[in-house]
Amino acid sequence: MTGWLAVDGGQTGLRLRTSDGRYGTGPGFSYADGDPVASITAAVRTAAVRAGVAGPVGVACLGLTGYPARPADRDRLGVAVARALNAAEVRLCEDMVTAHAGALPGGTGVTVAAGTGVVCLAIGADGTTRKIDGGGHLLGDLGGGFSTGQAGLRAVLAAADGRGPATALSGLAVARYGGGPDLGQRVAMADSPVSAVAAFAVDVFEAADGGDGVAGAIVVASAANLARTAAAGVRALGGDDVRIACAGRLFDAGDLLVAPLRERLAELAPSATLVPSAGDPLDGAVRLATAGLGRYAPLVHVHRGTAAPVTEESVVDGLPFPAGALLVSCQAQPGNPLHGPGSMARMAAAAAAGGACGIRANGVADVAAIRAEIALPVIGINKVAAPGGTFITPTFDAAAAVVRAGATMVAVDGTSRPRPDGSTLAGQIARIHDELGVLVMADVDSAAAGIAARRAGADVVASTLSGYTGGGTPDEPDIALVEQLSALDCPVIAEGRYRTEDDVRAAVAAGAYAVVVGTAITNPMDITTRLTKALR
């Protein structure tokens, strides 16, 4: 058992540390990723997988950018993280709280945490607490990595078209982003534009250290913004003999940033004292995971309960669902009004409420959202268009992405068609077993493909691709193929065009271990289209 687990989650990345010395990282937070509960849970799960955390966990403490404002969402996040980590207790708070706990072990004073964004927390001996800034890159975070990088990039564009003076930042921008007149477009089209802009703060500090006047002025302006934020915290605590500590990666710039900050603070908060930070936000998360919450208790949401995930080895044949189970495929393609992780999570919740024993879902976002919403096992797929027709999870990397998002097992294309990375089906399955530690379901189109997939190491064989790899697609499910596959020495899943009670009963009678139903349950647009055509 892992005694405690601590997380520092920011916009650029997430860090995880455990009581037994394990360390892992995950992706940063962005509201553009959809449901924050799902994206945060997926990032935590990714870091835990990378760290080799197998659970159970005693106490997990997470300091987070994107900490939900609504109590109901905090409850959902607590449950989702408890499931993901098999944690007995989950402590959730804003990253400003863990930054304060790491920087000021005494528990009182002002902490300015600056990384990609900026947030300040003031805590007084009388219990006063005040948050300053933390408004996000669109409306706040003044003086942080994003605003510093943004000012630098604006200076580069101004120099390029004659609106501003020449600056060494221009060459640094070319080195980081490439040359050409479309810098703005390239940054905007980055996987994470916020992180891409914030990364340029490092170049701004480098240029300022080298004597560039434009960069130097940007650094001084950022320091002034940070000083105004800190001074507001000092005033909130009465203004007398208040300690100020700075935390976050932005302060890795050292005196280049701290010296002008100290100079401005002397004007704005002369009675305050700037002190060295005792630790960083991850240290603060460790502290709040291993000790009483004390002054921080009002700022921390605590979830306790039996929220551990389904024990996958507790059912027959090692599968996470029993024989005779109905599994529901929750997928909606672009163009369908239900497309998106939020809709699919609610659809999965409805299926669970109706008695489904598992969910099949496509893509990282949907898998993460569904795992955050319900406790059922999820068969993850990752549809990737590839030459040769292979489409369903055609590579190891595609499988790894959905496993890190929370998939309980993975379904892959189990046909003989070529894979885009040149691997074989047997090689892909072996890597999934060895490196991801999950079961593999092979989606096949024929009895011969099923036999070959089983020989390649597939744990389960499914009739999913019958009628979809050449020729016309029939209207009815392929019960005959299920019967042929049932001769294999592994469970067989019936999938593909199952719509009625008679269909699912026939599949089980033909030897299916379980049945997957998708469109007939989760695609009202298709159902409506069929029924409308029937009336014409």
TrEMBL record:
UniProt xrefs under NCBIfam families: PRK01130.1
| Pathway of action | Amino-sugar metabolism; N-acetylneuraminate degradation; D-fructose 6-phosphate from N-acetylneuraminate: step 3/5
Q: What is the official name of this protein in its record? A: N-acylglucosamine-6-phosphate 2-epimerase
Reply yes or no: does the keyword Isomerase apply.
Answer: yes
Q: Which domain of life is it from?
A: Bacteria
Q: What class of enzyme is it?
A: isomerase
**So what family is this one in?**
Belongs to the NanE family.
**Can you give the residue ranges of the ATPase BadF/BadG/BcrA/BcrD type domain?**
32-256
**Tell me, what does this protein do in biology?**
Converts N-acetylmannosamine-6-phosphate (ManNAc-6-P) to N-acetylglucosamine-6-phosphate (GlcNAc-6-P).
According to the UniProt entry, what is the EC number of this protein?
5.1.3.9
Q: Catalysed reaction per UniProt?
A: an N-acyl-D-glucosamine 6-phosphate = an N-acyl-D-mannosamine 6-phosphate
Enumerate the UniProt keywords alphabetically.
Answer: Carbohydrate metabolism, Isomerase
